Amino acid sequence: KQEVTQIPAALSVPEGENLVLNCSFTDSAIYNLQWFRQDPGKGLTSLLLIQSSQREQTSGRLNASLDKSSGRSTLYIAASQPGDSATYLCAATMIKAAGNKLTFGGGTRVLVKP
Amino acid sequence: GAGVSQSPRYKVAKRGQDVALRCDPISGHVSLFWYQQALGQGPEFLTYFQNEAQLDKSGLPSDRFFAERPEGSVSTLKIQRTQQEDSAVYLCASSLGRGMGGGYTFGSGTRLTVV
After folding, report:
1. DSSP state, B96?
2. Cα dihedral sign, A28-A29-A32-A35
3. Does the distance separating the beta carbons of A106 and B31 come in below 8 Å?
4. How far is A81 from chain B (nearest CA, A)?
5. pLDDT value at B1 more than 60
6. d(CA B85, CA B81)
7. Exposed, middle or buried, A75 (CB in 10 Å: 0-12/13-18/19+)?
């Protein structure tokens, strides 16, 4: 059974600092890995999706890397802003999963202080 | 509609009461998923529909949980004889295809509190 872990569970940084969020998974037979953002009382917003054949994806200040062999993905957010404060979730889609369900980590709660 | 709509936004139920949670996906989206998110944790998969067919219900925690999507659009998640451990946010997501390429749109969820 796939297990996805995110460390740390919470992170507080001053504005302008770079953020590094970690995600690890136990089963490397993934189809893709996604990073989501969740604001309080809101649904999930997809940030980046990395296919299993890719090593990284970039969108603006966000960069996500994927190392299947070591079972890790990292989300980098450059020059953090207070508006980046949210919970960040990673989720793996398994190759053999029926219906392409997502297996989520527990999330990292980020606070960017002005 | 423009997004995935879930209702009600909040539901307080007395222990033992039955509840029904509604999800209205984006029009034309084939796939519909239900997830349960306990406080401070990531969402956990409950069930998956492809059109009206429920292809995976392996995540439903007990036979008190039942989901349907009779016409391949709106879905209802029903919980019978609610218990305190059912307290969570229930998220619905839809996608145009089977979701292999991502493309999920999540609703804002229904927060269920069982007292």
Report:
1. S
2. negative
3. no
4. 23
5. no
6. 11
7. buried
Q: What percent of chain B has pLDDT over 90?
A: 86
Which residue, among B64, B30, B58, B24, has the nearest Cα to B44 in the 3D structure?
B58
Q: Which residue has the tokens 């033992």?
A: B16
Average pLDDT over residues B71-92: 97
How far B61 CA sits from the closest chain A CA (Å)? 16
Query: Which residues of A sit within 8 Å Cβ distance of B?
Result: 4, 6, 31-32, 34, 41-46, 49, 89, 91, 93, 98-107
Q: Which residues of A touch B106 (CB under 8 A)?
A: 43-45
- Distance from CA of residue A77 to its chain's centroid? 11
State what percent of residues in chain A have pLDDT above 90: 80
User: Is B25's Cβ below 8 Å from some Cβ in A?
Assistant: no
pLDDT in tens, A49-71: 999 999 999 999 999 999 999 99
| Apex A22 CA angle, A80 and A56, nearest 5 | 80
